[in-house]
Amino acid sequence: MNDNRNTVPSLGSCRDNVYIDTDRILDSCRDKDCYEDVPVYLLEPSCEVIVPGANVRTNSAEVVAASINVDPVPFNRGFYQIGMRIFIHVKCEVCSPSGRPQEIDGLCFVDKNVILYGSEGNVSIFRSRPGVQDFCGTQNIEMAGTNLPTAVLETVDPVVLSTKVVSVGGCSMLEFPNSISGIGGDRLIYGRNNAMIVVSLGVFSVVRMERPAQYLVNGSEYTVPEKECVSPTMDDPCRLFSQMAFPVGQFYPPSLSDLRTSTGGGMNTISCGRCGGSHSGGQGGLGKK
Prior knowledge:
Blueprint (H helix, E strand, L loop, with lengths): L14 E25 L1 E2 L1 H4 L8 E17 L6 E17 L5 E17 L32 E6 L3 E9 L4 E4 L2 H4 L5 E4 L4 E26 L16 H6 L5 H4 L4 H7 L16 E3 L4 E3 L1
């Protein structure tokens, strides 16, 4: 709705130096990794339709969780190794023995390791907890915060490069927390019927190291917005719809020249930056750049 955008009135001379507490980015890198033949763990009923030579394809792959560990690098002060495991929910379509396609859910994971600069810190951090009030102070005790920097991983859903069924010599089982799997079970299997699904994935990621920092900046006094809140009109939804702008861009996909312009002149301009270390696929998947 073009007439519903916020406007900020002129602030005049209402400016002053203000102190802020925020996270400072000390180091960062971007990367694109190719993981080949990553095993897909399935629920037990889904394993029955996976047989050697079965026809399979992947309909979607979605990043659902990630675990991140930060460890100091020995003899390199200020540098840290970041170990990341990315969990991916995969939806596949398999031709069942009856000849009808059947959709199954699975979970796979890939590992990535990088080394970034995170500086050093020798302070203990304590923070009060809002809502906890204790006159004697026995219920509002805060332990010292960790001295390690914070690692942040940003990634998009992976690109599925290939999907196939391969023969294996046995069956393997892993237990995933139900909150991670998100596919209705915590015991996932691969290798039933001496066959398993493997996928090759392309993953784009950005990793950065952060530490709390305090800054003195030139700021402006906060003002009350001039825009009024707009609520949906349930008795006249067509009026609300008439105020929405027509999504012209959705009907005209970008051309090749537009894509090149948006990526800075080339389609393949992403480099590893300062990423270090190695990466690999889970349980037999080999990472490859």
